[in-house]
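Homework help board

Subject: predicted structure for assignment chain

Our instructor gave us this sequence and asked us to write out the predicted structure in token form, then describe one feature. I got the tokens but I'm not sure how to describe them. Can anyone check?
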Amino acid sequence: MLKRVETEEAVAFWKDIDPAATEGLSDFQREAIFEVVKQRGSDQHKADVRLSAFGYFLVILFGKERRNRDRLKDERRKKPVLTFNNLVLILVLWGSLIYTLYSLLPRALELLLKAVL
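My token output:
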């Protein structure tokens, strides 16, 4: 039998769930649940940035889309991207990026020209 690898997410899941809810599950059902929890918690994103400050958090994930088309449509309906708060955040992030690039570009060009010439 293959040795099961316990992930942090799987351990946290089984700790959080009420034992009364799982006592009637067969070994097959437990294993199927374990596999799904393990997949969801796996590090399959190319980039995973998680920031937290002043009681707020920001998560940016980048990777291959694995959700099916129906699920994507449902999520867009429930959580639209174009909301006031999202637009404010997007503007702040873009503004920060543009300001940083604008501030650094002259110095970077100067160093590049000195290195080349």
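Reply (TA_rk): Your tokens look well-formed. For the description, you could write something like this. Helices lie at 8-16, 19-22, 27-40, 69-78, 84-116. That's the kind of observation they're looking for.
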